[in-house]
Amino acid sequence: MIKTIGGEMRKKIVLLTLIIFFSVVLLTYASEKPRLGVLRFTNSVAGNSFWAWNPKVARNLQDMLISELASTHAFQVLERKEIGAVLTEQDLSASGRVSKSTLVKMGKIKGAKYLIAGTVSAFEMSQSTGGKVRFKGISLGGKKTKVYIAVDVKVIDTETGEIVDTRTIEAKAKGTKIGAGLSLRNFDIGGSQAKKTPVGKAIRACIVYISEYLKCSLAKVHYPRCMKKWNKMEKKRREKTKNAIDLDM
């Protein structure tokens, strides 16, 4: 009888020890969410009647990605003002480069492990035939509008300065309402007016996809299953790009 009670007690102690151990592991994991900062977006797309790049657009995209990353609850995300307090004007230039000294400051002062850099590498818009009316710099018209946007994403390790991950994220949207051809010249892409347009929808979708990819690649949520999906999409994108290039042999 004494031996039985002793055996039961040992089982309870072992069980309690395991519960405490796994609780500590889970708490440690939760407290070690990757801490990262989002740089102001840059642009490599030549200007056209719809795509008018300016610092406001760069900040809007930066804020949108910060918000989306925070909403995943998979990261500790620095606010834009925290990034701006460390980065120099040279770092915020169109080159998108970040100096080694800045990386050291960002890693030590702000505790950021990674910096996320985004460059808009493609923006296309096609409209069906129809009349067009311009109102205060905004293009309205076209019975049907299709929008495509691509962003090249780089993940920079603040400790080494190395680019540890890259990915091109694409998004498409279409619309048939008046206002489908909304231009980026005189409006806020983060505003309510833009959200209803194909341009706004494509941009928002692209930002959401970026946050989802980083959630998979950096925070390892649903990894490696999620990465299989992204690698499949990347392979499809690369094949499509290769097929679109007419090489003279």
Textual characterization of the structure:
This protein is α/β, with parallel strands linked by helices and 249 residues long. The protein has a single domain (34-239), classed as Rossmann fold (3-Layer(aba) Sandwich), CATH 3.40.50. It has helices at 2-31, 55-71, 80-84, 100-109, 192-195, 198-217, 225-244, and strands spanning 35-38, 42-43, 76-77, 114-127, 132-135, 138-141, 145-157, 163-175. The strands form 2 sheets. Strands 1, 2, 3, 4, 7 and 8 form a 6-stranded mixed β-sheet that branches. A hairpin with a 5-residue loop joins strand 7 (145-157) and strand 8 (163-175). Helix 2 crosses helix 6. The longest helix is centred in the first third of the chain and has 30 residues, at 2-31. The protein starts with a helix and ends in a 5-residue tail after the last helix. Residues 24-30 and 178-183 have low confidence and may be disordered.
Task: Please provide the ordered H/E string of secondary-structure elements.
Answer: HEEHEHHEEEEEHHH
Structural class comes to alpha/beta
CATH second-level architecture: 3-Layer(aba) Sandwich
Query: So how many helices?
Result: 7
- The proportion of residues forming helix, as a percent range, comes to 40-55%
**Biggest beta sheet summary:** 6 strands, mixed
What is the percentage of strand-forming residues?
15-25%
- Give the N-to-C terminal Cα separation: 88 Å
Strand elements, count: 8
Query: Class, according to the CATH hierarchy?
Result: Alpha Beta
Subunit arrangement of the protein = single chain
CATH superfamily: ABC-type transport auxiliary lipoprotein component
Can you tell me the residue ranges where pLDDT is under 50 for at least 5 consecutive residues? 24-30, 178-183
CATH topology: Rossmann fold
